[in-house]
Amino acid sequence: MTLKVYLSGEIHTDWRERIVEGAKGLDVAFESPVTDHAASDDCGVSILGEEPDKFWHDSKGAKLNAIRTRRGIEQADIVVVRFGDKYKQWNAAFDAGYAAALGKSLVVLHPQEHQHALKEVDAAAQAVAETPEQVVDILRYVLTGALPGRAGAAAE
Amino acid sequence: MTLKVYLSGEIHTDWRERIVEGAKGLDVAFESPVTDHAASDDCGVSILGEEPDKFWHDSKGAKLNAIRTRRGIEQADIVVVRFGDKYKQWNAAFDAGYAAALGKSLVVLHPQEHQHALKEVDAAAQAVAETPEQVVDILRYVLTGALPGRAGAAAE
Amino acid sequence: MTLKVYLSGEIHTDWRERIVEGAKGLDVAFESPVTDHAASDDCGVSILGEEPDKFWHDSKGAKLNAIRTRRGIEQADIVVVRFGDKYKQWNAAFDAGYAAALGKSLVVLHPQEHQHALKEVDAAAQAVAETPEQVVDILRYVLTGALPGRAGAAAE
Amino acid sequence: MTLKVYLSGEIHTDWRERIVEGAKGLDVAFESPVTDHAASDDCGVSILGEEPDKFWHDSKGAKLNAIRTRRGIEQADIVVVRFGDKYKQWNAAFDAGYAAALGKSLVVLHPQEHQHALKEVDAAAQAVAETPEQVVDILRYVLTGALPGRAGAAAE
Amino acid sequence: MTLKVYLSGEIHTDWRERIVEGAKGLDVAFESPVTDHAASDDCGVSILGEEPDKFWHDSKGAKLNAIRTRRGIEQADIVVVRFGDKYKQWNAAFDAGYAAALGKSLVVLHPQEHQHALKEVDAAAQAVAETPEQVVDILRYVLTGALPGRAGAAAE
Amino acid sequence: MTLKVYLSGEIHTDWRERIVEGAKGLDVAFESPVTDHAASDDCGVSILGEEPDKFWHDSKGAKLNAIRTRRGIEQADIVVVRFGDKYKQWNAAFDAGYAAALGKSLVVLHPQEHQHALKEVDAAAQAVAETPEQVVDILRYVLTGALPGRAGAAAE
Amino acid sequence: MTLKVYLSGEIHTDWRERIVEGAKGLDVAFESPVTDHAASDDCGVSILGEEPDKFWHDSKGAKLNAIRTRRGIEQADIVVVRFGDKYKQWNAAFDAGYAAALGKSLVVLHPQEHQHALKEVDAAAQAVAETPEQVVDILRYVLTGALPGRAGAAAE
Amino acid sequence: MTLKVYLSGEIHTDWRERIVEGAKGLDVAFESPVTDHAASDDCGVSILGEEPDKFWHDSKGAKLNAIRTRRGIEQADIVVVRFGDKYKQWNAAFDAGYAAALGKSLVVLHPQEHQHALKEVDAAAQAVAETPEQVVDILRYVLTGALPGRAGAAAE
One Pfam family, short name please (chains A, B, C, D, E, F, G, H) (predicted)? Predict the structure, then answer.
């Protein structure tokens, strides 16, 4: 059965594209948040009307985005959460906690330097990766039993 | 994956048609209650036998209708609840509460004048809209990341 | 979406056939228990080996049948439970309780004479019918909004 | 074990007091929303800061009140929902839907004149009463088996 | 921790008393339905008003009784269901199915003669007993590890 | 609807092949763990980097494998767990417990000699088989009602 | 009933003490993580043995701490999450997501400057506060209906 | 709040006593299976009647014991599973899987030699200990924040 994977977190590098590209040929369906930063920030007021107060501007947008992100997490078999180099990225950690509470398989993707700060998130994960290519290897292994440099032994 | 949307509430204006029409081309599947008022009122006794007492006449019908409405809400990703100008519309508010308790994404659609009376319902919602076209914009954004007057950045 | 209906209970009359036949053309998928009485009674020992003690003979069979019946109920939108004229039919009432606890829409089908004895089961149901044709009418109404002798107003 | 009862809905008559008073001596613990209308309306801005926009004024308050009301419903064995003569009372119907979705035993209390408009809510209830005294009788019967004018036969 | 036991089913013999009496000194809390047959039949109309139609007379009562029975089952660790010599006892089988679907430990108590007719219910049970004294032995063993004629080895 | 079956446990004999082969023509979808012993042991370090400590070597691999095994169990209608002649096979028993807690239909497959040691696992199962062919017979019966040596009476 | 409150997040200021102190006299039971930074970091290796690799040192500790934090969140009625001025605080956001997925009432406490970065977390909350005293006011209102500067109208 | 701990697994050494003794003074409530081997094996037939077939002898007993063990696991905050030197101990691994599926905090206790064979069980655990004293340290830390050789910083 198609493996459903939600790609949460950082939106400023090409990690999603590298995973999607690397997983070509595997029976995986990817979902992700809206990754257009401006659209994601302004969607609430753009559709439902302007707010003079930044708090409500943001709240309206965040609530709309949550329709998509929660559905993506709830329907996923695996939730991959990427922490990048910049920003607070509290929404990524929030998604990780949300996924963990639902019993989803969590894969965390982050550079070595965040290791200590992410220890609680990592400890809730099935795997902690440093590169998108490792995530692709995980998806391939989970579906086919194939490891890098070896032939897969168990076709799905 | 197809977005499942349940359209609950008012049955006397064309708001459902405007949403369904506006969402053409989007990967959305709509469900709704039986919107033929007379059929909805009389379905119980029509199928299962007359009742002299109005209470049981109504109870038989409401229980049959609940088979459809609960299934519609339980299978939905998003529940849109419309409050119109007339009638008590307690069934609409009941559906909203039912959807909220199940953790569904709730979108409320009502004219400005009902704002105060609907504050508890609105507070449970991911979005509060005034027009069916805003609901269409929400569905489009959730699925594609496209905002009104902007090109979508994240195809589903 | 296809309406999933499980037909539980009595296996000695043609009520299932009448419902399946009557629902032709509707988007309904039916499931039911194994209705071959002898196979149902003997399946356990037939596959897993004879038992000298009648209790274990029956237990082995009932446990195998439960794989099918519980799956049928758990996957159903509507569980129809038929009580006929003969036998204790405790398995039918058990299925009704099982379905009720899972929050399934329950439709009970029984002759008038069992009304008092079935009052707890009927009270947990969305509808109590006396004929298979009424069950067909319910399925049609739930899916299409059409009532007997009227044109349907709300296509699914 | 103590019967937990949540009293939702109308806040302008003494129905809660009549139930609490009538249930004296029974092992019942009552919870209810904040029934001070002004406090309930203004709690959000009073604690968290003023809002120039009425929508957000109301939203802040409704969200705070929801902490109490949802906890009350979620912990209850029985949810009593009262519909009075005035106002839209959509929050009462919302609570009823919320309780129904959680599988709570629902008791609806309303004057005869609302019967048709409340048919969906009534159809989800275990009992529909017209007076607070009937609700007391229900609580007494559920706990002790005693009926009005008869001695109870089954002490809890 | 106190073992919570719900005693469902037959109300015309003294099996409940024998279990409660036999379990004296054990940390068990028993619940049961209202066992006054007349009160149980008439509770609905007695509190909520007469019904000329027997079906609704019974429905009103069964719905009130369900408040107590479902709470009893939902809060129990063990649900004991007794089938006696007389009547259809479909409510007992309904309770057994309800308990099984909730994952409760089910103990069935019935005379040998009902063995075949109850095979589906028995197959869902953790134990099938013929006498109330056996049920007492089960409760004692579950709590203390003591068996009939042996000293208990594991105090709770 | 397609019957989903997860084949857990022993990976050193051809029992899976015999079941899959025997079930040809039946509407069954099989899932299983990665059965390449070396890949299964080394997947973690192979993808995510070497570990000098055997404990973490194994932990990394077991966590990756759990992504596949838990998904397989959670999506299954029936979980078949095979205990063979060798090794501790604690992962098989762990899977059985995992499946039981989720309410899955459990079928245990083991040689007679393990009977006493597996009594708790067997007692949680719907069926205990000794040969893969018996498992095939179970799947056929559950889907079609056909027994070995008899024509099926209830097509799915 | 005692209100159960879990205090998650920042451990370097006295916000917990101010809330606990302010809530004196209210029927609230507080839980929190281990707030001794050194103990929290080293608990895993201190009890279960040293790890040369920092990743596993941290993992062992984070997994132990999760026993306490998840229990605290799962048993809470209200989860308060505090974001302070320093550090990444991803564990705080993880806890907020975990609480949101379980349907807990979430109260977020943070300085104004984090508003935009916390918009997704805030949008999932029932209240967003800036001071511990506001949290105390919320707890008092939820329990008693009393607002700052007004007498409470609804004792619990 | 009292920490509830279930002690599953090996019954031939004094590990339970050492944990219970070591935890004196902590707010912990322990539960465990019946640890009298003979009583545990024979409880079914001792109470419910002899069985000539060993399989049913064992099945009757295992089903009775499951009433106690499942309740113990379901009510626990922490499930400790001990694997000793002897026997297959599949019931211990079954309990571990059962606990994991319910989201319980799992602590595994086993000698070093079983490390590889228990890797799937260990990978599902929050902690892997080798001595009962380490388990006591974990319980103390979870409740009080105190570590061995340090003063506790966070009283519960």
Answer: Nuc_deoxyri_tr3
